[in-house]
């Protein structure tokens, strides 16, 4: 299994080319380019998303659940424990180059 890190988190299932997870305060949902990241999914035509390159439309083709493994650090004694969290909904958008995590959805 290939794992990658961001914000002390790693996706439990991960496509080899997915090396970057970006926490984005401007995105309204979580996105990934790879269906192989999902533990369960429903395929469909969910919508088109806008990106900086308006000449290349990107389409959400799957909505799914992703599991991330992350550390929780106790601020009092700096001890850590590992937890697994479920992210839903996460949309698959082929053509993206990285995962986008919505700050608003995480709060």
| Through-space gap between termini | 29 Å
Based on secondary structure, the structural category is mainly beta
Whole-angstrom Rg: 14 Å
Helicity, in percent? under 10%
Biggest sheet character: 6 strands, mixed
Number of strands: 8
Number of domains: 1
Percent of residues in beta strands?
A: over 45%
Element string (H = helix, E = strand): EEEEEEEEH
Overall outline:
elongated
Stretches where pLDDT is under 50 for at least 5 consecutive residues are 1-9, 14-19
| Average residue pLDDT | 77
Work out the helix count: 1
Polypeptide structure, described:
The protein is 4% helix and 51% strand. It is built from one helix and eight strands, in the order E-E-E-E-E-E-E-E-H. Strands 1, 2, 4, 5, 6 and 7 form a six-stranded mixed sheet that branches. The protein has a two-stranded parallel sheet with strand order 3-8. Strand 1 and strand 2 form a beta hairpin. The longest helix has 4 residues, at 103-106.
What's the layout of helices and strands?
Blueprint: E1 5-6, E2 9-11, E3 21-24, E4 30-32, E5 40-49, E6 58-73, E7 80-92, E8 99-102, H1 103-106
Parallel strand pairs: 3-8, 4-7
Antiparallel strand pairs: 1-2, 2-6, 5-6, 6-7
List keywords for this structure.
107 residues; elongated; 1 helix; two-stranded parallel ribbon; 6-stranded mixed beta sheet; 8 strands; 51% strand; mainly beta
What would you say about this model in short?
With 107 residues, the protein is mainly beta. Helix content is 4%, strand content 51%.
């Amino acid at each position: 299994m290939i794992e990658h890190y961001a914000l002390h988190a790693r996706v439990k299932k991960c496509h080899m080319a997915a090396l970057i997870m970006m926490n984005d305060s401007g995105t309204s949902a979580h996105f990934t380019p790879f269906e192989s990241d999902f533990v369960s999914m429903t395929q469909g035509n969910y919508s088109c998303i806008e990106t900086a390159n308006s000449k290349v439309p990107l389409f959400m083709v799957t909505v799914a659940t992703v599991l991330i493994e992350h550390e929780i650090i106790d601020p009092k004694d700096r001890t850590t424990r590992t937890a697994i969290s479920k992210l839903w909904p996460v949309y698959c958008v082929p053509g993206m180059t990285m995962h986008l995590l919505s700050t608003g959805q995480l709060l």
